[in-house]
Amino acid sequence: MRAQRIVYALNPNSGQGLRGDDAIFAEGVELATGETFTQLHQATEHSLANGADVLIVQGGDGMASMGAELAAKHGIPLGVVPTGTGNDFARSVGIPRGKPGELRTRLISSLKDGTAKFRTVDLLRLEVDGVKRVAVNSVNIGFDALVNERANEKRHLRGTARYLVALVQSVRDFRSDAFSYAIDGGQPQSLDAEVVTVTNGRTVGGGIPLVPDARPDDGKLDVIVVSGLNRLGLSLLFPSALVGLHRFLPPVKLLTGTTARIDVPAGVPIYADGECIRSSDAKAGSTVEITIDPGALRLVRA
Question: Which is an annotated Pfam family here (predicted)?
Fold first, then answer.
């Protein structure tokens, strides 16, 4: 495949911008951006409506999620230049990190000369209180979503360090809440839990292998349920996951399926790919329905 028209979407909040050799934008590549994420989404949608062979996004997991939604909608491949804080989706699908300018040049050059490599991966399709969207890596509910919320406030830190600092601060404020969940339409399970999270990839928080056996192309979603941990246990959950020990803890349950329905109580945050779906200020409960869409996204890399 030799791409004739490429749309390149840049996160307006990306600290790395377009530094590097950008002469490659001179021919056959249209830049889509905006001052806000909403404006960027609209600009990218407008560019794709005019016809494109490939969409490339530069940013973190939230950008990859937006790109996946639009690429799947328009039936074109997606390329990712990871410059975010976590980059868990890029890590799960084997996209390397590096200098954005170099990654961008290699990817666009490979698309133009026909040497690019392609693979298909699954998407998470979710509906929260009637609102539909997609996720590429994870839907985080409960304690890890609260950590995500706090981590987003610490923009001076990057990667796992940012997540672990937020974790320490979140432990003192967190409590168990009454959840109900059902996998593949089975009998709903009701329990007081700290975490009920659904993943497509294996890592969260910038490289923490929370669900180490998850694969983004196996046609299954993975669910981790954590119930019965005190504050000390919560503070150790993610550090223990770094070395794979958390799966042996009795409060940790790992499940797989193709659909998940989760009833989330008021005051519990919901995040998808690092972006807020519902904050910890929510005054009412929500129902989250998630379905795996096998092979829905075609990825491209140099």
Answer: YegS_C
Question: What is the distance between the alpha carbons of residues 269 and 151, in angstroms, rounded to a whole number?
Answer: 13
235 and 171 housed in the same domain: yes
Residues in the chain: 302
Query: Which residue matches tokens 């998850």?
Result: 214
Distance CA 87, CA 159 (A): 8
Q: Answer yes or no: do 137 and 59 share one domain.
A: no
251 and 156 share one domain: yes
Domain hosting residue 99, numbered range: 6-122+297-301
Q: Are strands 78-82 and 54-59 parallel, antiparallel or unpaired?
A: parallel
Exposed, middle or buried by CB within 10 Å (0-12, 13-18, 19+), for 25?
A: middle
Specify the higher pLDDT residue, 259 or 18.
259
Q: What is the C-alpha to C-alpha distance for residues 150 and 165, in angstroms, rounded to an integer?
A: 9
CA dihedral for 74, 101, 32, 89, sign (positive or negative): positive
- Inside any domain, residue 261: yes
| Alpha-carbon span 207 to 87, nearest angstrom | 8
Tell me the one-letter amino acid at 94: G
Residues 237-248 pLDDT 10s: 888 998 889 988
Neighbours of 40 (CB within 10 A): 22
Whether 196 is in a domain gets the answer yes
61 in Cβ contact with 85 (< 8 Å) = no
How many domains does one find in the chain?
Answer: 2
Q: How far is CA 299 from CA 23, 123, 237, in A?
A: 24, 12, 32
The residues, ordered by sequence, that sit 6+ positions from 27 with a Cβ below 8 Å of its Cβ are: none
144-176 pLDDT, tens digit each: 888 888 887 877 776 667 777 887 888 887 778
Whole-structure pTM value: 0.91
